[in-house]
Amino acid sequence: MSKYDYLIVGSGLYGATFAREATLRGKRCLVIEKRSHPGGNIYCEEIAGINVHKYGAHIFHTSSRKVWDYVNSLVPFNRYTNCPVAVAPDGRLYNLPFNMNTFYQMWGVKTPAEAQAKLDEQRREALEAMREAGVTEPRNLEEQALTLIGRDVYKLLIEGYTEKQWGRRCADLPAFIIRRLPVRLTFDNNYFNDLYQGIPIGGYNRLIDRLLEGVEVRLDTDFFDNREYWESVADRVVFTGRIDEFYGFRYGRLDYRSVRFETETLQEPNYQGNAVVNYTSAEVPYTRVIEHKHFERFGSEVYDNPLTVISREYSAEWSEGKEPFYPVNDERNQAVMEHYRELAREDAGRVIFGGRLAEYKYYDMAPVIEQVLNLFDSEIA
Ligand code: FAD
Ligand code: UDP
Fold first, then answer.
1. Is 364 a catalytic residue?
2. Nearest to 369 by CA among 71, 10, 63, 65
3. Cα separation, 108 vs 26, whole angstroms
4. Distance CA 227, CA 224 (A)
5. What is the pLDDT of residues 156-212, one digit of tens each?
6. Are 159 and 122 in contact (CB under 8 A)?
7. Residue 227 annotated among the catalytic residues of the structure
8. Residue 218: enclosing H or E segment and its boundaries?
9. For residues 39 and 352, what is the distance between their CA atoms, to the nearest angstrom?
10. What is the pTM of this model?
């Protein structure tokens, strides 16, 4: 008989939630993690008393009451609401997402009717240009943005940012990337449409620590360094690493976009007055600057800190050795992934593939938790 019911590879949100739920049901779990800390990409590093989002800014948001109650039962959340500001190529500041504040700043329009008229005029232009080219549906991100929001917003707030983030021209990117950004005719700078939003008071590590309470975790342990042994210690494997690596790159490597963070401690209490400031000009090499203490404005003493910590984010082409952050949604990668999915289906009795890397999907945090909870509600139960 194996020593454990589950070997869980990876201590990110998927692995940690799985470990908690399985342990609560009396299962014996072992979590192995190749990094020297648990938590995957939501891990925070404390610098000058401030919780620094080491792998990129994370804002928890969801409309699922079940997920919101679950995380709040583990650690209290604050009332942080994400309201990014953009510095545009014209040197001016604009509110995001695209809403009445943005339209006032851009066009001086004061009512929803005036903004609508302006949007309609610009969308008409874009639709006519598409008709002349003989197309009815936006074929790429550029056409999608122009028909959704018009030329002015596209040129000032979208084009440069998107080309930096993805390292390709907007005309060569899929339309869906931009569809998730809200367009609102209200004075509402909340980046998300979800019912619930916040940051764990005291930082994300508290959430991870609660999830892993009473669970055996081995850090600095890479599954692939001793695969046979690790596979032998448990009846089933929960794998949250890269699926192509699990299958020895048999059908080729999956691509990612990576991000490089330049983090700096500044001798001042408040650098930019907001947690997130985007730089939408192609001339500025970074995409955004995160000032971490603003995530903790509510329910924490971090504001008394005379210092602040910022991170500049540079989007980067991924290569082996860099952090694989965003899956690349193009045809080649989708086709390769389909082969791995087929193998995963064959192995379903032995291995559960879950989370961002194993499913090669851009998952927010809440859906990852929801998936695990649903799994325990249905199959495993
Ligand atoms: P991960 O966090 O990647 O965890 C996987 C773990 O497995 C890692 O710790 C890794 O080291 C470990 N591992 C991998 N291979 C091995 C191996 N061979 N052996 C041992 N261990 C291994 N979501 C939101 O809801 N809001 C946000 O604002 C938000 N912002 C984001 C910003 C960025 C830059 C990124 C990249 C993601 C963001 N997300 C956000 C998404 C969020 O990070 C994910 O939903 C979540 O972290 C997924 O958890 P996971 O367990 O699937 O993956
Ligand atoms: N986007 C943009 N300008 C901005 C912010 C976002 O054009 O100031 C576009 C960009 O194409 C990006 C997409 O909207 O890829 C989704 O943005 P979001 O902030 O949701 O992406 P994330 O950084 O969370 O992946």
1. yes
2. 71
3. 62
4. 5
5. 999 999 999 998 899 998 898 888 788 999 999 999 999 999 999 999 999 999 999
6. no
7. no
8. strand 216-218
9. 19
10. 0.95
